[in-house]
């Protein structure tokens, strides 16, 4: 399996300056390569590829030894591949008939990471293994940077990425051949329904509360945004205000990740088979504003619902659940959610009127009454087990 390990860096002041310079030079390289492609196509109708721009790196580095020439050649190639992937995604959207979104130039706050594609090529993880208490990562042009390694790294390190988040620096290791950690079998199966009132409701009646971290911090965020709006662009005070707002968003993200990890781990430990809804969250949170000719209805209500869904972090939770289930040897089954909240778990009658309120379910055919989310979770479990049985029979 491939897994990522993220650790906090403890750079010295000089190393922090070097890391910022490295990030800035890679950002300028990305923007210059994008401008090269734009001008070549606009003026001569020529499409520039990754291979063309990678071949020019040697001359760029030679002409700028104190700038671009300071950094790893392979990391600069990774930055050019990053641009190439952006163009690949652009043409894929054009071909599919979707709104394409042409690759954009990266501003200072829009380029926050640099990748080294291979451990040992311009970078080295655990570069001072003889050190008795600390771990270091060596980066060409920066030096040996101390790492706050809070857990062991398993597998072998394939790529190393350094990213900036606010005033902090992190190293992200992508490792291959990470051994699985199977858990003992429990013989239990469960269906889970994701919601806004409760993050997770299980088919046996259990619930995981939705902490609503964004809503809890909304007042402080609003005050920070108002303070930011009053600051002059380019001023030192505005940079500090931006940092305060970014720190609040980072805290919300960490809280959401922590809750998702704990909820997913509890499920993986308790159940062998977990069935969940195969949600299309991007479609569910699409804006209802419409167009000038055809304005949407209930736009404010839909906006509030979208905010609540994104605050719950369904996508983050499902991604973490899938990773933990794979590592623990558990089976995860995605079920089509259509009709699961309107179908009676006792008699199978499906009708819109069965869902009395957000929390109450009362079947109009047999009179079965239950919590609406528990009823939906039972339907999800049955559908998941049916899919599992069909797959085993095939």
TrEMBL record:
GO terms for molecular function: DNA binding; metal ion binding. Residues 314-380 form the Cas12f1-like TNB domain. Residues 179-287 form the Probable transposase IS891/IS1136/IS1341 domain. The keyword Lipid biosynthesis does not apply. InterPro entries: Cas12f1-like_TNB, RNA-guided_DNA_endo/Transpos, Transposase, Transposase_put_HTH. GO terms for biological process: DNA recombination; transposition. It holds the Pfam family HTH_OrfB_IS605. Residues 1-43 form the Transposase putative helix-turn-helix domain. Keywords: DNA recombination, DNA-binding, Metal-binding, Transposition, Zinc. PANTHER family: RNA-GUIDED DNA ENDONUCLEASE RV2885C-RELATED, TRANSPOSASE. In the C-terminal section; belongs to the transposase 35 family. This is Transposase. It comes from Nonomuraea glycinis.
């Amino acid at each position: 399996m491939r897994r990522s390990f993220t650790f906090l860096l403890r750079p010295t002041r000089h190393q922090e300056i070097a890391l910022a310079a490295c990030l800035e030079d890679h950002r300028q390289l990305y923007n210059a390569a994008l401008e090269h492609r734009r001008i070549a196509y606009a003026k001569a109708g020529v499409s520039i590829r990754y291979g063309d721009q990678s071949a020019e790196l040697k001359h760029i580095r030679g002409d700028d030894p104190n700038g671009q020439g300071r950094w790893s050649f392979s990391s600069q190639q990774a930055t050019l591949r990053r641009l190439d992937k952006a163009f690949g995604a652009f043409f894929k959207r054009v071909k599919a008939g979707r709104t394409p979104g042409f690759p954009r130039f990266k501003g200072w706050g829009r380029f926050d990471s640099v990748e080294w594609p291979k451990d040992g090529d311009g970078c080295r993880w655990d570069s001072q293994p003889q050190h008795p208490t600390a771990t270091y990562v060596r980066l060409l042009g920066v030096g040996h940077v101390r790492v706050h390694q809070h857990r062991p790294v398993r597998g072998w390190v394939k790529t190393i990425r350094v990213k900036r988040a606010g005033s902090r620096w992190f190293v992200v290791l992508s490792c291959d051949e990470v051994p699985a950690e199977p858990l003992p079998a429990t013989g239990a199966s469960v269906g889970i329904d994701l919601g806004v009132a409760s993050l997770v409701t299980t088919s046996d009646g259990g619930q995981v509360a939705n902490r609503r971290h964004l809503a809890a911090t909304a007042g402080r965020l609003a005050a920070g945004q108002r303070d930011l709006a009053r600051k002059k662009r380019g001023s030192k005070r505005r940079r500090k205000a931006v940092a305060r707002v970014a720190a609040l968003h980072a805290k919300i993200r960490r809280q959401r990740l922590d809750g998702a990890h704990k909820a997913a781990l509890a499920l993986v430990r308790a159940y062998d088979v977990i069935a969940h809804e195969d949600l299309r969250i991007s479609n569910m949170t699409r804006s209802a504003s419409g167009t000038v000719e055809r304005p949407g209805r209930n736009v404010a209500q839909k906006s509030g619902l979208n905010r609540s869904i994104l605050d719950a972090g369904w996508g983050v939770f499902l991604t973490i659940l899938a990773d933990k289930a794979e590592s623990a040897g558990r089976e995860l089954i995605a079920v089509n959610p259509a009709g699961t909240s309107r179908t009676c778990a006792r008699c199978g009658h499906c009708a819109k009127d069965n869902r009395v309120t957000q929390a109450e379910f009362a079947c109009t055919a047999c009179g079965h009454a239950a919590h609406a989310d528990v009823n939906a979770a039972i339907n999800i479990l049955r559908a998941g087990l049916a899919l599992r049985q069909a797959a085993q029979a095939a």
